[in-house]
Amino acid sequence: MNLGLSRTSSVLSKNTSKKRTALIVGAGVAGPVLAYFLHRYGVQPVVVERASHLRKGGQVLDLRETAAREVVQRMGIANAIRENLSGEKGVHLVDRNGRIQATFRSDDFGGKGFISDIEILRDRLVNILYDHTHRNVEYVFDDHPLSINDQENHVQVTFASGKSRDFDLVIGADGIQSKTRRLVFSNKTQKHYLGLNIAYFTIPRSPSDNEWGRWYNAPRGRTIILRPDNQGTTRVLLLFRSSDHGYENLNIDEKKAALQKHYHDAGFEISRILRELENTSEFYFETAVQINMDRWSQGRVALVGDAAYGTTANGFGTSKAFIGAYLLAGEIGRSQNHTEAFKQYEDLMRPFVNKTQNMFPLALRITAPETKTGIFVRNALLTAVSKLLNTRLGAKMSQSKPTESGNVLPDYDSLLLR
Ligand SMILES: Cc1cc2nc3c(=O)[nH]c(=O)nc-3n(C[C@H](O)[C@H](O)[C@H](O)COP(=O)(O)OP(=O)(O)OC[C@H]3O[C@@H](n4cnc5c(N)ncnc54)[C@H](O)[C@@H]3O)c2cc1C
């Protein structure tokens, strides 16, 4: 990714007497990262989270972008993350009978392949971020903004609890279904349905599960991925193509019934998976969307992470959240002028967002080919690649680091309060 520049800055914010305040909506990934850096740059953050506690759940998230890993370093949480990795060795591509067709290790492609070398359960990551920030950041749970009124010299926010507070800035970090986006940017957002539905749930481990993920495709764009976690259970991902809308509006039982119908003849370990589906309490179902916006800010309100540029399940959500939050905090810290700060953030972040969003169609063809022929061709291709990786030359090529010349984060260190 090319974030353009690495520069030192004039420190405007340090010299002002009154601390600026920022409301951050959402305590997922982008929200706490933003709060961490804003606090370090002398801005007072308040994080409001709609759930009554940290919103847990979800599966493994990866940090495959070098710049995101750099943000983790600069936050001082790299060791905590390393200690909590899911421990997956890689992934086997398997056929209908579970026979291995191709193998990709987590350190293939410089640790940034199908399974990266930094994979962590979402719960663990969200906990680490909260633990690292809550002493210096006010967190408010079980509340959310009902109205956000930009009054030019401040923003007035009314909460569901009935409280009302003023802030210098409001940042929506409230995920792909962002309400902040709906309240402030409703006519400036394009939400594209990607023709893909995804269910995540957790099932008991069976003797066929080990430290390797297993990835299987059935015709009609049906993907099954089984992944070990470090909790003694197995995480299931069912991903299927369908241009029908409306799955997201079904209740849980109806969603489970739709999966039973869609998958019953898929093969591989589907009988076991569908049997356990009926018992699972941790179940998420999403219809994949992509958020496209010309601008991520308006007046004193801005968006970061999935709220601004989310694409469901394209593998870059967490990296974008870390990098976007870092850049936004840095630019707010650098300039008292929020219009200038938001513009700089957008200019720096836009190329990376465009790159990841443009990759989606190819990623989908690889992850969920639609027909038997498509699966055959994809498997043949990946088998050839995995065989090449097992040769000495292939392994060497895969481990060599890509040039990182454009991969430089701006340096905001001179803003840090020490
Ligand atoms: C429960 C859950 C499970 C997930 N599981 C996966 C997964 O398995 N694989 C994957 O790749 N990605 C998953 N994601 C998405 C992934 O976390 C994000 O793509 C990525 O980390 C970017 O994070 P974010 O902070 O922008 O958004 P998110 O991580 O989605 O965080 C948004 C936060 O905002 C809160 N929120 C929402 N609305 C409001 C509101 N109105 N007011 C206040 N707070 C609000 C949410 O409760 C959440 O805590 C999941 C997200 C969630 C919320």
TrEMBL record:
Family matches, as InterPro entries: FAD-bd (IPR002938), FAD/NAD-bd_sf (IPR036188), FAD_aromatic-hydroxylase (IPR051704)
Give this protein's Gene Ontology molecular function annotations: FAD binding
The reply to whether Membrane figures as a keyword in the UniProt entry is yes
One family from Pfam that matches here is FAD_binding_3
In Swiss-Prot or TrEMBL terms, this protein is called FAD-binding domain-containing protein
Write the lineage as a comma-separated list.
Eukaryota, Metazoa, Spiralia, Gnathifera, Rotifera
Keyword Membrane belongs to the record: yes
Q: Keywords, A to Z?
A: Membrane, Transmembrane, Transmembrane helix
**Where, by residue number, does the polypeptide cross the bilayer?**
21-38
Domain FAD-binding stretches: 21-332
Question: Residue span of the signal peptide, if any?
Answer: none
